[in-house]
Structures are given as structure tokens and as C-alpha cells.
């Protein structure tokens, strides 16, 4: 069984079946009624932190649609609960659901800094920007408790290695001291995600993320310290936030962003079912319209797996979104450029000290 009404505080409204598991877990009405009569919770809505012990931490990114070659994720699962998040499907590899489990069961990689250090010290490693994180947010609430991201940034600084950051959490400003040192060597760039200027929209799409004003302030503070910021105005969801593209671009430009990027939403794997269930509960008056608009961007389907097309979309609606993005760049970002990070400083630091000869 699943709740029929919209449940605040989380993105997903249910746990979808894990495609890799033989058995399906569900709550029956008689069990829910028993819990009600006994005054007990049928299941806990609290976030769990589960330690895991990977052997490696840096992942090579094969997708041509993502602007990175390597990424690393200190955490799997994300408490932010963004309903559209493509990373939800990855939670199924760990035996969990892409739905509520993704938001409530956070896998913590405490050994990430040591694994990172071993990777970039390896004699065969050639410096290339590693992105924190390509999958889940490295500054999600768990970071406040475990500080794994900060320790990884210290490793990048120690070995003069370039690092990119993707986040929608103002917690990144906690590490401004390290970011300033990295930036002094042109070794860091920050991508801040801003998907709407409406708090009402933000609270439904991304229930446990930083407010819009905090994100814009984050862009401003980083930019005032000359740390390059790219704004991720993504995903664009027709019927929900795509009409905000121009004012979004202006807002992030006014706060100092040097560039911005967009994608058109696609609901791959279990996310299609999770998003469909969510929108029928959270925005029932426009659910069908939004779903049809998304399908129009992907050849009649809400999912799209075609390299080169899946993140851009196709058709008239997708083209309108990209036309607006082009206009925004001409209007608000002329003569601005996100810099390339340096890769030539790392080699002498592999052994922890500069070579003398």
C-alpha cells in the first residue's frame, strides 16, 4: 500500500520495486490498520546513515552527454529528495529502492579521502578534473555530520589537483577557506544548481535543499572571492519551471555566475514511475499536461536513452527551451567565460613534495 495524499518533507511518495530483486516488499492494509490501532509507525521516515567500504572512489564517466571525464561520490543516496534526480536508479544496485530509500538510506564512504589520495598518487595517473559529485550531492545534509567532502578537498589541495564541485547546498561556503586556496592555483570550479525562483516550486521539487535565496547568495559569495561559478539551470521541466529560464539566467548572472548550463528533464528507469506518482499527488491539476509536455520532448516517451539527444530533448518545446537559453547567453552572459582548470601543477606533488631536479 502507499499513501494516497501528498506527503510533505520528502520528494518521492513511495518505494518502487527494485528491478534486481526477486521479491517485492509491500505494506498491506491490515498491517497499516494494526499499526494505527497500536499507535505505532508502520515505517520510520528518519534518515539512516549506513557506512560502506568501497575499494575505489574515482569513477570514469563514459556518457558523452555529461561534461566530465571523472567523478567521485562521498555519499550514495541523497537526502535532498529532488524528485527528478537521475541518480535515484543507482540506489537499486545497492539493493534499495529508487524511491523513498534513496532519500532515507544514505550510504557513507568514510574512506573516500584515503582512496582519493591513493588514486591521484598512482604513478600512472595523469591529472584530469575530478568532479564532486557526478551522482549525488557532495554537500547534502550528511556532509555536515561526516565532513568527507572537506577532507577530499584538502587532498586535492595537498596534491595541487583540479576539482569540480556540483551542489545545490549553501554548505559549500563552509569550505570557502580551502576553495580560496585551490582557486589561487586555478584548481577549482563550482557548479551551483538553481532550478526555480519560486520557493513554492522549490519546496515541492527539491524538498530538503537550500532555499533559492541561499543559493543565489552562495553564487554571490563565491564570485566575490573570484571562484568561478557555473549555474546549473537544470533540469528544465516544461509546465513547471521552463518558463523561468530567462529570469533564472538573469538572477544568476546578477549574482556573478560566469556561465550557465541547462538540460531537458528525462525520467529514466524507475524515475518515470516515481515522478508520475509524485506529480499526481503534488500537482494534480496539471499532472497530465506536464507528462504530455515531457513526452513531446522525447519522441512520445518520458524516458530517453539516446546519447546526444536524451539531455537536450527534441521537438518544438525542447527547441523553444534551447532558443531561450541562447537568448539568455546573448543578453546576460556576453563576454563571460568559465575558465579551464590547470592540470600541470599536480605531477611534482605526487610524492607530497616538489621535485628538486
UniProtKB/TrEMBL annotation:
Lineage: Bacteria, Pseudomonadati, Bacteroidota, Flavobacteriia, Flavobacteriales
GO MF term (any one): iron-sulfur cluster binding
Iron as UniProt keyword: yes
UniProt name for this protein: PA0069 family radical SAM protein
Protein keywords: Iron, Iron-sulfur, Metal-binding
Occurrences of domain Radical SAM core (ranges): 61-301
Organism encoding this protein: Flagellimonas alvinocaridis
Transmembrane segments annotated in the record for this chain: none
Keyword hit for Iron-sulfur: yes
InterPro entries documented for this protein: Elp3/MiaA/NifB-like_rSAM, MJ0683-like, rSAM, rSAM_sf
CDD domains per UniProt: Radical_SAM (cd01335)
Stored Pfam families: Radical_SAM
Domain of life of the source: Bacteria
